[in-house]
Design a protein that fits this description.
The structure holds two protein chains of two kinds. Chain A has helices at about 5-25, 40-50, 55-70, 75-100, 105-130, 135-160. Chain A is mainly α. The chains are: A mainly alpha, B alpha+beta.
C-alpha cells in the first residue's frame, strides 16, 4: 500500500471514530455508571483489524482516544482513555491473530470492550491509590459483554458489505 | 459464544462476590480521600443527624453529605456528574469515585460479627 494512501486512511478512520464518539456523547444515558458506555468508536477498530491490519487499527484508536480526550476532558481523562484504547486494541489484535475464524468479530468485540474497561478501572485505581475502585469492575465486565457484542455485530455487518 | 459465556460468567460471579461478600454488613465509618490522601475520616456513632463536608482541591470542588450510616456526593463541579448520579451508598467497602476531582468516598467496617453472621 502506498504511504500517502495509508496516511489518508488513518486520518479518515480517526475522524470517523471521533464522530462516533461525539455522537455517543449526545445520547441520553438513563443510568449513570462510571465507564459504562456503548463504545461505538470501537466499531472502527473492529472493522480495521481484519481489513487493513492491526498496526493501522492501533494507530487509529490511540489517535482517536487522544483527540477525544482533548475534546471532552482534561489530561487525567486522557490517561484513562488512552490506556483503555491501547490495551483494548492490543487485546483485539491478539485475539484476532490467535483465534479469528473460530472466534467471530462479536467475540473479539467483547474481548476489546472488557479490556478497555479493565484498563480504565486499573488506571483509576492506580492514580487514586485505592483498590476499592476495582469493585466497579464486575458490572463493567457485564456491560462490556453487551456493548462488545453490539459493536462486534455491527463491525461484522460493515466488513461483510464493504460500504467504505 | 464461548467468549461471551466466559466473560458473562466471570462478570456475574464476581458481581455476586462483591455484592454479597465484600459489601456485607453495616458500615461503621467513612473515609474521604482526595488526590490519593485521606482528607477526612468519620465514625457514624459520633455523628448525629446530617453532616455536610466540602472538599476543595486542585482538581475540583465537591460536597458530600452523610447521615445515618450512609453517604452520597450531593454536589460536584465535574463535567460528567457520574459521582452525584451514584446516589447513596450504605454498605461497607462501597465506594463513590469522582474521577475528575480525584475524590474517593469509601465506607468502612463490615468485618467481625456482622461479617460472620451475614
Amino acid at each position: 500500500m502506498r504511504r500517502n494512501y495509508k496516511l489518508i486512511l488513518i486520518a479518515v478512520m480517526t475522524a470517523v471514530g471521533v464522530a462516533l464518539q461525539v455522537f455517543e456523547a449526545q445520547l441520553p444515558i438513563p443510568v449513570s455508571l462510571p465507564g459504562g458506555k456503548i463504545g461505538l468508536a470501537n466499531i472502527v477498530g473492529l472493522v480495521l483489524i481484519p481489513t487493513l491490519g492491526g498496526g493501522i487499527a492501533l494507530a487509529v484508536s490511540v489517535l482517536r482516544a487522544l483527540l477525544g480526550s482533548l475534546m471532552f476532558g482534561g489530561f487525567t481523562g486522557g490517561l484513562y482513555s488512552v490506556g483503555g484504547a491501547v490495551l483494548s486494541a492490543c487485546a483485539m489484535i491478539l485475539a484476532y491473530k490467535l483465534w479469528y475464524p473460530r472466534v467471530t468479530l462479536i467475540g473479539i468485540g467483547v474481548i476489546g470492550a472488557a479490556a478497555h474497561n479493565t484498563a480504565q478501572v486499573t488506571v483509576a485505581a492506580v492514580l487514586l491509590g485505592n483498590a476499592g475502585v476495582l469493585s466497579y469492575l464486575p458490572i463493567l465486565i457485564i456491560i462490556a459483554v453487551a456493548s462488545g457484542s453490539f459493536t462486534g455485530f455491527t463491525a461484522e455487518l460493515i466488513g461483510r458489505r464493504r460500504f467504505w | 459464544m464461548v467468549i461471551i459465556g466466559v466473560f458473562l460468567a466471570a462478570g456475574v460471579l464476581s458481581l455476586i462476590y462483591v455484592t454479597f461478600f465484600l459489601w456485607s454488613g453495616k458500615p461503621s465509618g467513612v473515609i474521604i480521600e482526595s488526590d490519593g490522601k485521606i482528607f477526612a475520616q468519620y465514625e457514624f456513632n459520633t455523628i448525629s443527624g446530617k453532616k455536610s463536608v466540602e472538599i476543595k482541591s486542585d482538581y475540583g470542588y465537591n460536597v458530600v453529605e452523610l447521615e445515618n450510616r450512609r453517604i452520597r456526593i450531593v454536589h460536584s463541579d465535574c463535567a460528567d456528574q457520574i459521582c452525584t448520579g451514584a446516589g447513596w451508598i450504605d454498605r461497607p467497602n462501597q465506594v463513590i469515585v469522582c474521577l475528575p476531582a480525584r475524590l474517593v468516598v469509601r465506607l468502612t467496617g463490615g468485618e467481625g460479627v456482622d461479617y460472620v453472621s451475614y
